[in-house]
Amino acid sequence: PEEQAHNPSVQECTVCASEHPIEDYPSLASCTHTPTVCHSCFLQWLHQSMENTTWSSIVCPASTCTNPITHNDVQKYAPAATFTRFDELSIRSYLSADTNFLYCLAAGCTSGQIHDTGVEGPIFRCVACGFRMCTAHEPVVAFHEGEACTQYTERVERERVERLTAKEEEARKRRQDDEASVAEVGRSSVECPGCGAFIQKTTGCDHMTCRRTGCGFEFCYVCRAPYGGVEGIRRAGNSAHAKTCRYHSAKLPRYRGPILG
């Protein structure tokens, strides 16, 4: 069979597996290997890396390479907006290494700046949105207008204790309610002698049959004497009830046979 001629002017991308012209493969400054990722896949990789990793972790997209992507690479191969964002991330990474660099705490603001408390005092004002913070606290907090730092600290601690106390009181109340519920179950129900399940009688006679699956034990609701068995109420009559039970034969002056409750 005739072999297909190899076209040296195109190359298959290792990411999308499509063929592209050789010139469509970015050649990164810090890499010595042959470029294997097309321009489109390179941009996707760059955008994903900028969103999901730290600036220092943005590296060559080739699977066997970990060389960093440089400013020149991004400026050469990416749109201007992407380069601006990349440059911003690199500056932030550099500034974040400075112990005096602080990010603004205002909701929706992503700005940050260097603030030397020893020189500028404890009041930080964001150059982007004007939000103020107090750097006298660790960690830094929003500026507490009208309160000295000691007053702010005392108030925050007092509120923390109050929240903790409220949670403890809520937990105590739940425990108390649970205990009361258990006690109420104990007062208004009896334990099945057969399986231990609690049974509450609402209406009807005192001849109980446990409805728990697999049980079916029959007993007197008043004294829990069993109905079945050799010594049960069915065979022994009402004398099988506990002597204190109102259904015991001794409690029935006109007893004429078993009264089954």
Automatic annotation (TrEMBL):
<feature type="domain" description="RING-type">
    <location>
        <begin position="13"/>
        <end position="61"/>
    </location>
</feature>
<keyword id="KW-0677">Repeat</keyword>
<keyword id="KW-0863">Zinc-finger</keyword>
<keyword id="KW-0862">Zinc</keyword>
<dbReference type="InterPro" id="IPR013083">
    <property type="entry name" value="Znf_RING/FYVE/PHD"/>
</dbReference>
<dbReference type="GO" id="GO:0016567">
    <property type="term" value="P:protein ubiquitination"/>
</dbReference>
<feature type="domain" description="RING-type">
    <location>
        <begin position="9"/>
        <end position="245"/>
    </location>
</feature>
<dbReference type="InterPro" id="IPR002867">
    <property type="entry name" value="IBR_dom"/>
</dbReference>
<keyword id="KW-0833">Ubl conjugation pathway</keyword>
<dbReference type="InterPro" id="IPR044066">
    <property type="entry name" value="TRIAD_supradom"/>
</dbReference>
<dbReference type="Pfam" id="PF22191">
    <property type="entry name" value="IBR_1"/>
</dbReference>
<dbReference type="InterPro" id="IPR031127">
    <property type="entry name" value="E3_UB_ligase_RBR"/>
</dbReference>
<keyword id="KW-0808">Transferase</keyword>
<protein>
    <recommendedName>
        <fullName>RBR-type E3 ubiquitin transferase</fullName>
        <ecNumber>2.3.2.31</ecNumber>
    </recommendedName>
</protein>
<dbReference type="GO" id="GO:0008270">
    <property type="term" value="F:zinc ion binding"/>
</dbReference>
<dbReference type="InterPro" id="IPR001841">
    <property type="entry name" value="Znf_RING"/>
</dbReference>
<dbReference type="Pfam" id="PF01485">
    <property type="entry name" value="IBR"/>
</dbReference>
<dbReference type="GO" id="GO:0061630">
    <property type="term" value="F:ubiquitin protein ligase activity"/>
</dbReference>
<keyword id="KW-0479">Metal-binding</keyword>
